Structure formats: C-alpha cells, structure tokens
Amino acid sequence: MAHKLTPFITAAQIAERNAELGREISRSYQGESSLVCICVLKGAFLFFADIIRRIDREIEIDFVRLASYGSATSRSEDIVFSKDLEIAIEGKDVLVIEDIVDTGHSMDFLLHVLRRRNPKSLKICALIDKHERREKAVTVDFAGFKLNDGFIVGYGLDYDERYRELDGIYELSNES
Ligand code: 5GP
Ligand code: MG
Ligand code: MG
C-alpha cells in the first residue's frame, strides 16, 4: 500500500525549537562538570547532531542502540543493548537524547541500566514526547514537541528504515 505523507513540523520550526532547547539545556547545566550527551540510535541521529551544536558548554558524546525482541509491542523486559556506550559515565552529568518517548518502555530500560553506572545526574531530551501514551513513569526533562497520537516520520524517524532523510517531520498514513 502507498503511503501518504502529511507535513506536520517544518524544518524551520524544528530549527527554531532546537535553538530554544539548546538554550534551556545550557542554562540547566551551567557551571557544572563534564556533560555526556548520549544519542539513542538510529532515530535520534539528526536531532542529536543539531542539539549538541546548540549546547553552550564542553561535552562528550556517545551512542547506544536498543533492540527489542519477542512481541512487536516492546516491553522493557524484552529490550537489550545492541550497542552499548563506550565511555564511562560514573560521576558525570548525563543527557540522553532520544527521538520519541512513547509508552516509555525503551527509555525506562535505558534509564535503569544507566543509573546502575552511578552518573552524577541523568536527564532526558526528546524531540517528541507522546506523554499521553505512557505506560511507564518516564518524564522528559527537555521536550521538543508534544504529540497525542499518529505515526510520524522524517528528520531521523523511519517507517521500516524509510524516510529518515527528510528534513521535516510528516504524519504517515495509508493512501486510501
Ligand atoms: P516506547 O518504548 O516509548 O513505546 O517507544 C520507543 C520508540 O518507538 C521510539 O523511540 C521510536 O523509535 C518508536 N516510535 C514511537 N512512536 C513513533 C512514531 O510516531 N514514529 C516513528 N517513526 N517511531 C516511533
Ligand atoms: Mg527511539
Ligand atoms: Mg523505528
């Protein structure tokens, strides 16, 4: 079936919001020690690249990738790292940068794993916060945009590995 892409957030709107988020993040970490920014692959890669260049302080970057197995609807118990961090985060401020927090299962898993490594602080920045769909108590500290329902693609977000390269965000539906 063919897909219909309806423009949802333009590249200009994303850029404007990223600049604001960067200022918020910079303010909240002012004067503190080492900040590690973690990109959750693959979906966050463009957002991550844009946000880290808006943070006005010295940072370290690293990448993780999560994989879920078992049921299609992921539960935290079914999630594993398919790529772990390479740098140590003990005693450091850590900011996880994710594309979308939806039910919260993926982020809940990631936060549990990272907390066991004793970071000084642990916060979340997400491009999209689908807060009304939460099944786990995960709070996004820095949210780009809020969304209630619908499936979106573009600006790093895929449908079956397609559409990640689009510079805006689109709502995906089936052509009727
Ligand atoms: P959660 O574990 O919070 O339910 O969902 C985690 C992941 O599902 C998100 O990080 C994202 O990769 C994917 N996801 C959730 N909603 C959407 C959406 O609307 N579009 C796309 N492309 N991925 C989504
Ligand atoms: Mg994701
Ligand atoms: Mg995906």
Major beta sheet, strand line-up: 4-3-2-5-6-7
So how many helices? 3
CATH topology of the domain at 33-150: Rossmann fold
What is Rg? 16 Å
- Small molecules (ligands, ions, cofactors) in the structure: guanosine-5'-monophosphate, magnesium ion
- Residue fraction in strands: 25-35%
User: Which stretches are low in confidence, meaning pLDDT under 50 for 5 or more residues running?
Assistant: none
Number of strands: 9
Task: Give the structural class.
Answer: alpha/beta
Shape: globular
Measured between the Cα atoms of the first and last residue, the distance is 9 Å
The percent of residues in helical segments reads 10-25%
**Highest CATH level, the class of the domain at 33-150:** Alpha Beta
What is the residue-mean pLDDT, rounded to a whole number? 93
CATH architecture of the domain at 33-150: 3-Layer(aba) Sandwich
The biggest sheet amounts to: 6 strands, mixed
Describe the structure.
The strands form 2 sheets. Strands 4-3-2-5-6-7 form a 6-stranded mixed sheet. Strands 1-9-8 form a 3-stranded antiparallel sheet. Helices cover 21% and strands 34% of the residues. It has a domain at 33-150: Rossmann fold (3-Layer(aba) Sandwich), CATH 3.40.50.2020. With 176 residues, it is an alpha/beta fold. 32% of the residues are buried. Helix 1 (11-28) crosses helix 2. Residues 43, 74, 98-107, 151-153, 157-159 line the site of guanosine-5'-monophosphate (5GP).
